[in-house]
Each structure stands twice: as structure tokens, then as C-alpha cells.
Amino acid sequence: MAVRTIVKHPDPRLRQPTVPVAAVTDEIRKLCEDLADTMYSANGAGIAAIQVGALERLFLVDAAVAGGREEDPPVVFINPEITWLGPETEAKDEGCLSFPNIFVPIKRSIRCRVRAMNLDGEMFEMEGEGLFARALQHEHDHLTGRLLIDFVGPLKKQMILRKLRRDAEDEAA
Questions:
Q1: Strands 111-117 and 75-85
Q2: Are 142 and 7 in contact (CB under 8 A)?
Q3: Could you say which of 90, 111, 142, 160 has the lowest number of CB atoms within 10 Å?
Q4: Are the C-beta atoms of 83 and 114 separated by less than 8 Å?
Q5: SS3 readout for the chain
């Protein structure tokens, strides 16, 4: 088990461009294992590689969130692309491992379809709704450098930055 350190905002690594995965190697499998360990140790529903400072274009979503069983491994999405967003949207509070204890209402499509590669190097498509669709869109945003803080106005942004600074100072003390 290898729990990696989660990169927290305002670390500039969260805005770095991600790079496509050319092939599923042992290093990619190990990264996915580490991401799963890290996600579960932080009680996350999903995690993108960039959140641990890795530039590979991939993310994981908890199996139960993806409609699987609690004991199933998380679903791995390598080189994912959103192929369809449903027209119906809703605003709901979202959290993010890179913004601990921060929740912001974000308007997203209720349904979403993603095409990606799995750990066997096979292409697949998955459609989700509700929390799963939200997780797919949230994690995909990480791969494009779009963060939770980008969805709020200037006043809320200042409040979030202040809270993150205070929390970081408390952690360092």
C-alpha cells in the first residue's frame, strides 16, 4: 500500500498539462494502485493522477460510485474523453481532495458518457448519472487544469484561499 501526498491548491502542479498514456505499463499499474490507496485513505470518491503530481492523463472513480459493489476495485479511466453530456443540469455541492473541507455548488450535467482505456489497454465507454456523472466530469476537469475554484466568483474565491491558507498554517504549526 502506497499512499501518496495529495497536491493541494494553490500548488501550480494542479494546472500542469497532462500527457496521454501511450501504453499500460507496470509503472501505470503501480500509479493506479497508489491512486486507489490515496483516494481511499482520504475518503475520496475519485482522484486524478495530477492530484499526486503525476502528469499521466488518467483518473479513478470509486466502484460503488460507478454503480459497482463496495468491494470492487475502483474504475480506472486512462486517456478519458467525455463523448456526451446530457442536456439536464443541476447545481450541487462538490468537494475535492485538493481543496480539503471546501464545498462549492457546481452546475453539471446529470448524465455523462466517457470513452477511455482500461488497465488491460482496451477501450470502453461508460455512461453515468447523478454522483457518478458528477465524478466523471470533476475528475476530467482535473486533466484539463480546471479546478473547483474556477467555478466561483471573486469573493468566494478569496474566502476559499483564506481558509486554505489558515488550514495550511494550522497544519504546519
A1: antiparallel
A2: no
A3: 90
A4: yes
A5: CCCCCCCCCCCHHHHCCCECCCCCCHHHHHHHHHHHHHHHHCCCCEEEHHHHCCCECEEEECCCCCCCCCCCCCEEEEEEEEEEECCCEEEEEEEECCEEEEEEEEEEECEEEEEEECCCCCEEEEEEECHHHHHHHHHHHHHCCCCHHHHCCHHHHHHHHHHHHHHHHHHHC
Residue 173 pLDDT level (bands cut at 50, 70, 90): confident
Residue with cell 493506479: 32
Q: Which cell numbers hold the place of 166? A: 489558515
pLDDT for res 68: 94
State the chain's mean pLDDT as an integer: 96
For residue 9 the three cell numbers come to: 491548491
Question: Are the C-beta atoms of residues 148 and 107 closer than 8 Å to each other?
Answer: no
Best CA proximity match to 7, nearest among 67, 132, 96, 69: 96
User: Are the CB atoms for 47 and 60 separated by under 8 Å?
Assistant: yes
Q: Is the pLDDT of residue 1 over 80?
A: no
b/e map 69-84, b = 16+ CB within 10 Å: eeeeebbbbbbbebee
